[in-house]
Amino acid sequence: MQWMTLFRKEMIENWRNKKWIWVPIVFILLASMDPVSNYYLPQIIESVGGLPEGTVIELPDFAPSEVVMMSLGQLSSLGVLVVTLMSMATIAGERKSGVLELILVKPVAYRNYITAKWTVLIILVWVSLLLGMLGSWYYINILYGELSIQSMLLVVLFYGLWLTLVVSVSIFFNTLFKTPGIVAFLSIATIIFMSVVTQIFSHILEWSPNNLTLYIMEMLQTESIPSELIWTAIVTIIISIGLLIAAIITLRTKELAN
Amino acid sequence: MQEIIDSINWAIVTPILIIQGLLALVALLDLAKAESTNGSKWMWVFIIVLANTIGPIIYFIIGRSRD
């Protein structure tokens, strides 16, 4: 009951600050940009000019699965940046401005407060991802060749877990620091650090969440779900839940100390 | 140049242009209704209109003042 109230408050707030409009639009643009621009690359190169007469530019014909990976590549860099920036103030901002104290005057459980925020962000990110990849799917089918909607939905399902982890990392740092800039910086630094560690210890960290896109590519190419993908997905979910619990504990101890 | 413009399949490009326009429009409407922003309003109008896609995003992330 209390959770629903917090959930609704958060939904309304994200509607008022237009996150429900601009985040999906940005995801659609990010995911559709590469399929379209790569298709028109020959024309773009031609119109920019500067090449000697008679130059033949051989560009590879991309398979639909390769184009999906291009879209995911955009989401992994700029998409992750957008997710961290739009979530950097979700708790930190309320702590800084004192709204949190107003909320916690009432007997609000910390776990309700944090999980409501987390859920709203997750829904927002998943809906944005779904719309974005549908845009990408639309262009792939027009420009590159057939790609089934089932495989695209599987891509959304597994890639969504990666963004879930990003949101969880951001929520965790939200409870540690009051300055939104620091929260965003540390979230991005953590994700970069994770990818470096995954690359260095690639033989041990087979199921690191950073490998999700790798296995998604494998899934698209072999048209079956590799077992590594399942295990990586499970590890990602466990880390996300762990971060969420850590966030609840951190906020509780921080606020009680004040 | 003309033939390049003709060669573009507008059925493909139009949805993207519409979505970009929508993003800028929402940002401008939000800006018009906002009581105050971080930085002057006119500066944000220019950023939203001139910097395609990136402008509205930057406005939503750092331009809106938290209330």
TrEMBL record, chain A:
GO MF:
ABC-type transporter activity
The residue range of the signal peptide is none
Q: Is Cytoplasm there in the keyword field? A: no
Sorted alphabetically, the keyword list is: Membrane, Transmembrane, Transmembrane helix
Query: Which residues are listed as membrane-spanning?
Result: 20-41, 72-93, 114-140, 152-173, 182-205, 229-251
Gene Ontology cellular component terms for the protein in this record: plasma membrane
Keyword Magnesium on entry: no
| UniProt protein name | ABC transporter permease
UniProtKB/TrEMBL annotation, chain B:
Coarse class of the primary localization is membrane
Sequence intervals crossing the membrane: 7-29, 41-62
GO annotations of cellular component type: plasma membrane
Name its cellular compartments.
Cell membrane
Any one Pfam family here would be PLDc_N
Q: How does it sit in the membrane?
A: Multi-pass membrane protein
UniProt keyword annotation of Transmembrane helix present: yes
Keyword vocabulary terms for this entry: Cell membrane, Membrane, Transmembrane, Transmembrane helix
What are the residue boundaries of the Cardiolipin synthase N-terminal domain, all occurrences included? 23-64
* InterPro entries on file: CLS_N
Protein name per its UniProtKB record = Transcriptional regulator
Query: Whose protein is this, by species?
Result: Oceanobacillus chungangensis
